[in-house]
Structure formats: structure tokens, C-alpha cells
Amino acid sequence: MATVIITGANRGLGLEMAKQYAANGWDVISTAREPEKAKELKAIDKVTVMHLDAADDASIEKFVAQLADRPVDLFINNAGIYGPTELDRDQWLDLFNVNVVGPVKLATALKDNVTKSADGKMVVISSQVGSIAENDSGNMMYYRTSKAAVNQAWHSLAQQWQDEGLTLAMLHPGWVQTDMGGANADLTPEESVEGMRAVIDGLSHDQNGKFYDYSGREIPW
Ligand SMILES: NC(=O)c1ccc[n+]([C@@H]2O[C@H](COP(=O)([O-])OP(=O)(O)OC[C@H]3O[C@@H](n4cnc5c(N)ncnc54)[C@H](OP(=O)(O)O)[C@@H]3O)[C@@H](O)[C@H]2O)c1
Questions:
Q1: Which residues contact 66 (CB under 8 A, 6 or more apart)?
Q2: Candidate of 82, 180, 213 to mutate for ligand 1, largest count of ligand atoms within 8 Å of Cβ
């Protein structure tokens, strides 16, 4: 049975990913900052819920140590935060901690587990607003910088690990009805995750380091 790790799975897109991967026969290792409160996640059959705070190195180390040498076929770094809305140094750095440094620390710490899979993949849930080419409004500047940075980092890891049998990609989920996306967003979590699962399933090594949306459209940098 294939194994997937999904971070930030107690609500929003991560919760829907856990539901869909479990329903499709995957072994799901999901994470939450407060597993004891993740009732909907814990109610899904065949889903393990573990503690992880992406902004805390000790938490990342403990999480990865618990996996020992277990092979992991797919790592989805879904956890992410939005904001800030004003130029505040601490808040901007908090955003980078969760959206950039955490994902790169996790990818690095999980590399040995994912290389144990015959077809190991690592996907970061980024955002179209991280594209500089498609930025024609300048709004959401702080959030944009974090997604542009994680794209550059993920692309760099993809190049560094080019010969290690891994495939890395960045995915934009669309504008989705979650706490982050709000009720007026275009897509339901079900639609977005169905699309992203199809894109992930179809990823081959020649797509290593590329940036796609949930429909498979390649997004320019
Ligand atoms: N929704 C959209 O329209 C949209 C569009 C483009 C990209 N995205 C991206 O898609 C991903 C999922 O977004 P979403 O809409 O599902 O957001 P969401 O509903 O706000 O959920 C965010 C998830 O991330 C977790 N998280 C936050 N900080 C964390 C930390 N320090 N360590 C570990 N987990 C943490 C949250 O856990 P807690 O419950 O503990 O806070 C929650 O599980 C994010 O990376 C987001 O940037 C979303």
C-alpha cells in the first residue's frame, strides 16, 4: 500500500486530501498542530494523525524520527498561512517560517524516506500568486513573497536531487472554499483536491521542479 504524508490536515485542503487519499486505498500519515482537537481527521479510517508544527524545528525532528526508515511515496507540504496585511517585520518573518523554512526543513529531513519509494514525489502546495509573471495587481504582497520563495526553494531542491530518483513539484490548488480562501471562492475542496490528485498521479520525472495548477496548467514563474 502506498504511503502519503499530508501536513496541516485538520481542516481545509489538507483534511480533504486525507479523506480522498484514504478513500483511494493509501496509507495516510496526516499532521496537525493539535491532534487531540482534530476530530474530523481522526474519524477517517486508515488515517494516522501525528503532531507537527512547521515553525518548530524540535517538532519537525520528532515527527521525522517517529517515521524511522519507513518508505514514503508522496510527501505533500500543504500547511500554510496567509498574511500579514501590513508591513510588520515579525509577522512577515512568521509567514516565511511556516510557508518557506518549514517546508524546506521537512523536505530535507524526509528525503531518505521518500527516496526509499520506487516513485517518490514531494509536492508543496504553493499559490498562483507566487508567480511574478502573473502578478498584475501587487496586492497580497507579503503572502506572494512567501510563495515565490518556496517555489524557488522547491525548484532548487529538485535540481540538487535531480539524480536521486525523486520528483518534486509545486501546485496551486485554485481559489478554494476554506478558512483561508473564504466562502466566495471558485472551487470546493473536493474539486480542488480531485484535480491536484490527478496532477500528482500523472507527474513524471521530466516534470521535476515545475509549477502547475490543479487542472495541470503549467504556471510561469
Ligand atoms: N484556499 C485557497 O484558496 C488557497 C489558494 C492558494 C493556495 N492555498 C494554499 O493551500 C494550503 C492549504 O490552505 P487552506 O486553504 O486549506 O488553508 P486553511 O484552511 O487555513 O488551513 C491551513 C492548515 O495549515 C495548518 N497550519 C498553519 N500553521 C501551521 C504550522 N505552523 N504548522 C503546521 N500546520 C500549520 C493549519 O493548522 P491549524 O488549524 O492548527 O491552524 C491548517 O491545518 C496553504 O499552503 C495555502 O497557502 C490555498
A1: 50
A2: 180
Q: Is 193 in the pocket of ligand 1 (CB under 6 A)?
A: no
HSE, CB side, 13 Å, CA atoms: give it for residue 98. 19
Domain residue ranges in the chain: 3-213
Question: What are 181-200's pLDDT values in tens digits?
Answer: 999 999 999 999 999 999 99
* pTM reported for the whole predicted model: 0.99
| Homologous superfamily, domain 3-213 | NAD(P)-binding Rossmann-like Domain (3.40.50.720)
Could you give the CA distance from residue 34 to residue 56 in angstroms, rounded to a whole number?
A: 14
Atom of ligand 1 nearest to the CA of 56: 31
Bond from prior residue into 84 cis (ω within 30 degrees of 0): yes
Question: What average pLDDT does range 204-219 have in this prediction?
Answer: 98
